[in-house]
Amino acid sequence: MLIGGITKSSLIDFPKKISAVVFLIGCNFNCPYCHNPELVISNIVEPIHTNTIYSFLKSRIGLLDAVVITGGEPTLHKDLPDFIKNIKDMGFLVKLDTNGSNPLMVEHLIKNKLIDYIAMDIKAPFDEYKNIVSKDINVENVKKTFEIVVQNKIDYEFRTTVVSNLLNYESFEKISEMFKQKGKIKKYYLQRFKKSKHLNAFYLNAKTFGDEEFERVSFLFKNTVEEFMVR
């Protein structure tokens, strides 16, 4: 388990819970606007020992409600189930952030009740994925994870980071149609792109949609999403 960092207390990463956030190193995507490049380029960060995380969490029993596991891409780690089980045994709820590229791992975690909440990135309509992830990935795996999340009885959200040179109105029309085929999606959040540190320095000057564009897109999801938000 390669752990790159921890946020010791957060009020925003797990809905209505006080959580710690654990960042795992390594990712199989190469999204140019990624704001955690030090977790994608795995030799930049000195890993934190797993026992250090366990010791910290033990000291926060009764003070924290949950642990969010993010990255990088957490599902790349084969020992993720054992790591989560140890956290669950301390009494914490667990949320997983994922890019959806490992459906077998996600299905295993859900079936074994190792996660209580899952947040999956929808980078783009599936036919536009490779424009964003900058790698020759198997998009079918992302589709499978999408199906698994929707079909299982687990609290979830889907989310899309909006960068205006990568996505347009037609992109969200496709995503809306994808959602419509499933009846209704629980939660879908559009995330305003914010300038930060990025994998590709070009994205220091990238832009997100304006308010009018976001409002126009929001109408697409009026009948397909139970909870929609721009954040």
Description:
The protein has helices at 37-40, 50-59, 80-88, 103-111, 129-133, 139-151, 169-180, 211-218, and strands spanning 3-10, 19-24, 66-70, 93-98, 117-121, 155-162, 185-192, 225-230. The chain has 231 residues and is of the alpha/beta class. It has one domain (3-230): Aldolase class I (TIM Barrel, Alpha-Beta Barrel). An eight-stranded mixed β-sheet has the order 1-2-3-4-5-6-7-8, with helices on one face. α4 packs parallel to α6 (139-151).
Order of helices and strands: EEHHEHEHEHHEHEHE
From the coordinates shown, what is the CATH architecture?
Answer: Alpha-Beta Barrel
Strand share of the residues?
A: 15-25%
CATH fold-level topology: TIM Barrel
CATH class term: Alpha Beta
Number of strands: 8
Which structural class matches the secondary elements?
alpha/beta
CATH superfamily assignment?
Aldolase class I
Question: What overall form do the CA principal axes indicate?
Answer: globular
Q: Uncertain spans, ≥5 residues at pLDDT below 50?
A: none
Radius of gyration of CA atoms, rounded to a whole number: 17 Å
Query: Mean pLDDT, as a whole number?
Result: 93
Multimeric state of these chains?
single chain
Helicity range = 25-40%
Q: How would you summarize the topology of this molecule?
A:
Blueprint (H helix, E strand, L loop, with lengths): L2 E8 L8 E6 L12 H4 L9 H10 L6 E5 L9 H9 L4 E6 L4 H9 L5 E5 L7 H5 L5 H13 L3 E8 L6 H12 L4 E8 L18 H8 L6 E6 L1
Parallel strand pairs: 2-3, 3-4, 4-5, 5-6, 6-7, 7-8
Antiparallel strand pairs: 1-2
Helix pairs in contact: 4-6
